[in-house]
Amino acid sequence: MLIARLIADPATLETALEAASAELGAVGLAVAQAEMLDFCSDVLELSIVGDDMATLRRVIDSHFAPSDAILARAPFQVPHVFVSDMDSTMIGQECIDELADYAGIKDQIAEITERAMQGELDFESALRERVGLLAGLEEGAIRRCLDERIRPNPGAKVLVETLKSRGCKTVLVTGGFHHFADEVAAQIGFERVAGNRLEVVGGKLTGGLVGEVCGSDTKLAVLREELGLLGDEAVSMGAGDGANDIPMIEAATYGIAYYAKPKARAAANGWVDRGNLTALLRLLDVPEKDWVR
């Protein structure tokens, strides 16, 4: 049995459901039940007889896009741990691109960032190349960038605080930098932060990093570490948008692609393509009256 929860355009929902049900039935995936979660809810839940997740997501994308959705093989639960990427997921910016603007090289660095997030470049090599281009930048530019450029995505704080109120451990894991992530985590409400550290000497960036690189392996390791503390039955949610988030997304019970690059979205069993981050609370059937604002 497969379960799909989705939010789509209410004006076309009925006709989309009819078309999707017919297509699923034609390939042996019968829709056993289709219902809105609650009265006046905008979340449609489908129960599907079968186990072809790839076909189910293809049909949903074909008939309901753009949508917010999570697909599962077991009854939904609020996760016990939530591990999220930062840049372009919890915040609307790529910090290194914005910081590069203060050095006058935003376009040069943003091009490398985009290729890395698309999975066209090795993440660590691309990170070290970009950080190297920032050598000599005054450390004060980080503070200015935080104050002037970096903003949480809509719904980020409500999502994190509400999950915490339900007993969920929240962790921010970024291929970006602690200079940014520590403040973003405090603002949004994350309990733990993992990221990279820019090397600063004499008030200026050296173009290097301190310690090991926090990349896709680290994101996956942090998720597994947190699950190891909770036991085999723990439910996890991981969210990201780029190629370096893929291992974490694939390992999570609910792997969420947030307005993601194609490779990351293809790896996920959930996505947000329509609403904001509070869509995840709706999909998890957390009543809006219980959201922590």
What topology emerges from the helices and strands here?
Elements: E1 2-7, H1 13-26, E2 30-36, E3 44-49, H2 53-64, E4 68-72, E5 81-84, H3 95-101, H4 106-117, H5 123-133, H6 140-148, H7 156-165, E6 169-177, H8 178-188, E7 192-201, E8 204-210, H9 216-230, E9 236-240, H10 246-251, E10 254-258, H11 262-267, E11 270-272, H12 279-283
Parallel strand pairs: 5-6, 5-9, 6-7, 9-10, 10-11
Antiparallel strand pairs: 1-3, 1-4, 2-3, 4-11, 7-8
Helix pairs in contact: 1-2, 3-4, 4-5
Structure description:
This protein is α/β, with parallel strands linked by helices and 293 residues long. Helices cover 40% and strands 23% of the residues. It has twelve helices and eleven strands. Helix 1 (13-26) packs antiparallel against helix 2. The protein is elongated.
The average pLDDT value, as a whole number, equals: 97
Structural class: alpha/beta
Indicate the low-confidence ranges by residue numbers.
none
Counted beta strands: 11
Percent strand equals: 15-25%
The description of the largest β-sheet is: 11 strands, mixed
Overall geometry comes to elongated
Report helical residue fraction: 40-55%
Distance between the termini: 35 Å
Supply Rg. 20 Å
Provide the spatial order of strands within the biggest beta sheet: 2-3-1-4-11-10-9-5-6-7-8
